[in-house]
Write a structure and sequence with these properties.
This protein is of the alpha/beta class. 53% of the residues lie in helices and 10% in strands. The chain is globular. The chain binds iron/sulfur cluster.
C-alpha cells in the first residue's frame, strides 16, 4: 500500500465518522441543489445545450495542437507574451523570473486551481514574495493554512461561526463577526493589497482560440481588481481550457454559472485579449499567459480523453456520495471528487494515486449531473482496468480475486462447501478490509441452486 493510499484511508475513515462535518457539507450542498434547479430553468432546451457543449469541446480537444497554436498566434499578435510550461517547475520558474524582472515583493491572486496544483503560493513565499488570495473563500483558507476544500467553493466545509473564529485567531477581530462584517474586513485588507502589488496572477476558465483571449469568470470582482491595478498580469492556464471561438461563450458561460453555483450568469465575466494598447488609459501594461501541461497530455489517451472536456463546475463533487461523506481534504489532491479521481492518477501517476479510482460507488450520479455529459464513472472503471493490467494491485489482491473468480465459477464448490466453512474462509480473507468496520459475513445454509434442486425433487 502506498503512503498516499494509507493517508487517504486514514483521513477518509475519520471524516466519514465526523457528523458535524457531514452536517455542514450537507447544508451547503442542499443550498446548491436548490439553486441549480432554479438556474436550469433559463435553458429552453437544456439537453441540447449540454450535447452542443460536449461537441464543441470534442472538436477543441481532437485538434488541441491546432487550437493552441491559433491561440498563441492571436494572443501574441495582441501584444501578449506566451510561455509553454511542460511541468509545474517550468511554470513556477517562469512566474519567478517575471516577478524578479518586475522587482515584485507582493502579488495578488484570484481564485485558480491551476496555481494550487503547482503550489504557487508556497513557492513564492520560499522566494520572498508574498502571494495574497483575493477570492473570499480562498482568503479564508489561506488565513487558516488549509488548501481549498472544493474546486468552486473553497471553504464549503466551514460554517459562518468557523470563519469568524479564523478571522478572530488570525486577524484579531471580534469572534462573533457576522458574514457581512467578515466581508467588510476582507474588503478593507485586500483593497490595500491590490494597490501595492506589482503583479496580478489569475487562472483562466477558457482560452479562446480565434481571438487569443483568456476568459475569467468570478463573483466578487476580485479577479478584475487583481488584473486592473498591478501593471503586470500573469494568467496560468491548463491547455485543456481551449475553446474554438468567442461565440462559444454564449453556451459555456451560462452552463458554468448554472452547474457551478445555480446562477443564470456569473457576476463578473472578463475577457482579456492582451495588455493595454497605445492610446488606452487603463489595464495592465504587460500580460503573460503560461500554458501548462503538467500531465494533461496523458489525458489524451482515448479511454480518458473526455476528462479534458471538464469546465470545473464542481457539480460532480456535489453529487458524489463518497465526496459528501469524506469531504475534499481526505483526497489529499488538488482535484477531488469524481473528476479528480479520474484525472489525478493519470496526471500524477497511476502507481501513487490509483486508489482514488476505487473511491467510488459507480452509481453514475456524477455522469448524470455533468453539464458536458462526461462519462466519469466509465473512466473510473478504465482507470481500475489500467491499474489491474499494469499489475499495480499487488500479489495479495490479484490472487484473492483469482481465487474468488475460481470459486464463483464452480457450482460444485459453491454447493458442496458448508456455509460455516465458507464463513470461515471469507471472513478470514477479508478480516482487515471488510471486517475492520463491518460485522462478519454469514452465508445461507444452502445455496439457491441446492434449494431449487431439492424443490424439483432432483
Ligand atoms: S466533470 Fe463535469 S460535473 Fe465534474 S467538474 Fe467537470 S464539468 Fe463539472
Amino acid at each position: 500500500m502506498t503512503e498516499q493510499q494509507k493517508t487517504f484511508l486514514t483521513k477518509s475513515t475519520i471524516k466519514a465518522g465526523d457528523l458535524e462535518h457531514k452536517r455542514k457539507v450537507a447544508f451547503n450542498i442542499r443550498k446548491y441543489n436548490d439553486a441549480v434547479l432554479k438556474g436550469k430553468k433559463q435553458f429552453s432546451d437544456l439537453e441540447s445545450a449540454r450535447k452542443k457543449a460536449k461537441n464543441i469541446k470534442w472538436k477543441a480537444i481532437e485538434s488541441l495542437d491546432k487550437h493552441l497554436e491559433k491561440f498563441e498566434q492571436n494572443f501574441t499578435a495582441n501584444g501578449g507574451k506566451l510561455i509553454w510550461a511542460e511541468n509545474a517547475e517550468e511554470a513556477l520558474q517562469a512566474v519567478l523570473q517575471i516577478c524578479r524582472d518586475k522587482k515584485a515583493r507582493q502579488v495578488v491572486k484570484s481564485k485558480s486551481m491551476v496555481t494550487e496544483e503547482i503550489h504557487l503560493n508556497h513557492f513564492l513565499a520560499e522566494n520572498g514574495i508574498e502571494s495574497v488570495e483575493t477570492d473570499l473563500g480562498e482568503y479564508i483558507q489561506q488565513l487558516d493554512g488549509e488548501p481549498p476544500y472544493h474546486i468552486v467553493t473553497p471553504a464549503m466545509h466551514k460554517s459562518k461561526e468557523d470563519v469568524a473564529r479564523v478571522f478572530h485567531e488570525k486577524l484579531g477581530t471580534d469572534p462573533n463577526l457576522t458574514p457581512a462584517e467578515i466581508t467588510m474586513v476582507t474588503r478593507k485588507k485586500l483593497r490595500e493589497k491590490y494597490i501595492t502589488a506589482e503583479v496580478g496572477i489569475t487562472g483562466g476558465n477558457f482560452l479562446i482560440a480565434d481571438t487569443g483571449a483568456v476568459c475569467l469568470t468570478e463573483n466578487e470582482g476580485n479577479g478584475r481588481l487583481s488584473t486592473a491595478f498591478p501593471p503586470t498580469h500573469i494568467a496560468i492556464v491548463g491547455i485543456e481550457k481551449v475553446i474554438p471561438s468567442l461565440s462559444d461563450l454564449q453556451l459555456y458561460w451560462p452552463l458554468l454559472a448554472t452547474f457551478g453555483t445555480g446562477q443564470t450568469v456569473t457576476v463578473y465575466n472578463s475577457i482579456f485579449t492582451g495588455p493595454r494598447k497605445a492610446g488606452e488609459t487603463d489595464g495592465h501594461q504587460e500580460m503573460y499567459v503560461i500554458l501548462l501541461d503538467n500531465g494533461r497530455t496523458n489525458l489524451l489517451r482515448p479511454e480518458v480523453r473526455e476528462s479534458m472536456y471538464c469546465i470545473r463546475c464542481g457539480s460532480c463533487l456535489n453529487a458524489c456520495p463518497v465526496y459528501k461523506n469524506i469531504g475534499g481534504h481526505a483526497y489529499g489532491t488538488t482535484y477531488t471528487g469524481p473528476i479528480g479521481s479520474v484525472i489525478t492518477p493519470r496526471m500524477v501517476g497511476m502507481a501513487e494515486e490509483k486508489h482514488l479510482s476505487y473511491a467510488s460507488s459507480l452509481c453514475g450520479n456524477c455522469t448524470d449531473v455533468c453539464p458536458l455529459k462526461i462519462n466519469i464513472h466509465g473512466m473510473l472503471l478504465e482507470n481500475r482496468s489500467t491499474a489491474v493490467n499494469s499489475k499495480l494491485n499487488g500479489f495479495m489482491e490479484d490472487n484473492s480475486w483469482r481465487l474468488w473468480n475460481l470459486a464463483m465459477l464452480s457450482r460444485r464448490l459453491m454447493n458442496t462447501a458448508t456455509s460455516s466453512a465458507k464463513d470461515k474462509v471469507v471472513n478470514k480473507v477479508f478480516k482487515d478490509s471488510w471486517g475492520h468496520s463491518r460485522g462478519a459475513l454469514h452465508f445461507a445454509p444452502k445455496s439457491f441452486n441446492a434449494m431449487w434442486k431439492e424443490r424439483q425433487g432432483k
